[in-house]
Specification:
single chain, alpha+beta, Deoxyribonuclease I, Chain A, 6-stranded mixed β-sheet, 7 helices, 14 strands, DNA-binding
Length: 254
Amino acid sequence: MKIVTWNVNSIGMRLEHVLRFLREESPDILMMQELKTLTCPTTEFEALGYSSHALGQKAYNGVAILSKAPIILMQDRLSGEDADEQARYLEAEIKGLRIINIYAPNGNPLPSEKFDYKLRWLARLQMRLQHLIQGGVPFVIGGDFNIIPEAKDCHDPKTWMDDALYRIESRQKFRALLNLGLTDAFRIQNSNGGHYSFWDYQAGAWPRNHGIRIDHFLLSPLIADRMRSCRIEAAPRGWEKPSDHVPVIVELDF
DNA sequence: ATGCCTTGGTACCCAAGA
């Protein structure tokens, strides 16, 4: 089973890129983030054999799951804060496997209510995943975590030290997820740094390879033993009018 | 470096992203 996560930075602008990727890579499941629309296209995906479930929002955020196999929606909001209306969380069951798609808050500037919200949101996520583990539910969670886990996951840690993506509070939240028993799918087969999933549009970040690794897959214990491979597909960053993020691909014996 | 781009929404600039 091939599963992909990709922050597309507006599905309206990136539909042709997504369709090209689906044709070339033919994943079983695609999780998308930052749709930036209230409604996500469906017919173009159906033509390629994918059903979909989207949680949209006007102008901001937005997540969707595409799948060749039927999607059973389990949750479309992250529990723990009733007033939270931001479209950042989808939890589904596909072929008996729990699939979670997240778009975690950015958290900048700092300090701010946005940073406080980020930390609260990640604490809520930790609670939800702990609940699933205690319930014996195997799962794969993928998405834009907006966290640089370690110094080797960015080109120049000094420039990120006071950024919400690398602040120690954010990294502690990521570590807390790993401490639940989850596996960073990419890291397990790539202990060296210098592999990135995002390059800023500004200051020639892509041609200089000044990137950061913030798009991740975490595998629950039973699923981690079934991982075949995990790789970052950087080529779409070089396509015309690209997203600033690229797809991350995990393959499981499932 | 406050900056550099890109996007959407509302106007032709602003917020947000990371």
